[in-house]
């Protein structure tokens, strides 16, 4: 088992980076990687929901990770989400991720068909077996996957020595306590309650809005670690207000965030269909959210 302290802190979920034709852009992947490292984040979570993984081929997901690792290896922790809708593709991505030297792989449970717990455990263990020297993170996101992690399923998975953590994106912070008590690391998923997740025992946060305002989440984490709870709460509130503003747009949240990054000179392209792209009236929301981020950074960071 690796040194688990390296997983603490603020870990943005990496955005999909496309060119103007909608293809993966290696240059933009590398640019976003360099930007986030420069912002002082602790790690990157690549190929998850924010990476639009379910809309990408195995080859595309490999291309993304290869270019992230070209910039990030040895500088920050990299966790690669490798789950696909079948075991064979997931194993291929897991083996590829290990060959690149990622710190950990992660996987949601199989989606669409609701499998019994022993079937889910077999799926995860088969993926882990394809990367036998790499830490494994269970990704619990029941509102999208359609199935929730349970204490009994986690107990079964803990028989696998590579299982070190749960990325918990269920909304009840109570769930964090359950996984913490089971003896694994827990990454807080819901960005709006980062401080609450930390209070319940999460060692870090992995979030889809971290990349657009990393300094704010780093400040929340810093205040929490210093015991400055009121200060942490104030920054959390500000981050939440920014999230609410971004969610007012017609376009998908990731489209909004990529547009905000573009204003900073970090080009990521749009989003892949069927996700809705920005429309003209969304630009006002992009501008307002970007201004809110700048103001909050100036005030709190």
Helices and strands in order, then pairings?
Layout: E1 9-12, H1 26-38, E2 43-46, H2 58-72, E3 77-81, H3 87-100, E4 104-107, H4 117-129, E5 135-140, H5 142-145, H6 151-157, E6 163-168, H7 174-181, E7 185-188, H8 194-199, E8 204-207, H9 214-225, H10 229-246, H11 253-263, H12 282-300
Helix pairs in contact: 1-2, 2-3, 3-4, 9-10, 10-12, 11-12
Task: Describe the model.
The protein is an alpha/beta fold and 301 residues long. 47% of the residues lie in helices and 12% in strands. The protein contains 12 helices and 8 strands. It has helices at 26-38, 58-72, 87-100, 117-129, 142-145, 151-157, 174-181, 194-199, 214-225, 229-246, 253-263, 282-300; strands at residues 9-12, 43-46, 77-81, 104-107, 135-140, 163-168, 185-188, 204-207. It has an 8-stranded parallel β-sheet. Helix 1 (26-38) crosses helix 2 (58-72) and helix 11 (253-263) crosses helix 12. The protein is globular and about 50 Å long. The model has no long low-confidence stretch (mean pLDDT 97).
Q: What descriptors fit this protein?
A:
single chain, 301 residues, eight-stranded parallel sheet, 47% helix, 12% strand, Aldolase_TIM
Give a brief outline of the structure.
The chain has 301 residues and is α/β, with parallel strands linked by helices. Helix content is 47%, strand content 12%.
Euclidean distance between termini CA atoms: 35 Å
Mean pLDDT: 97
Q: Note poorly predicted spans.
A: none
| Number of DSSP helical runs | 12
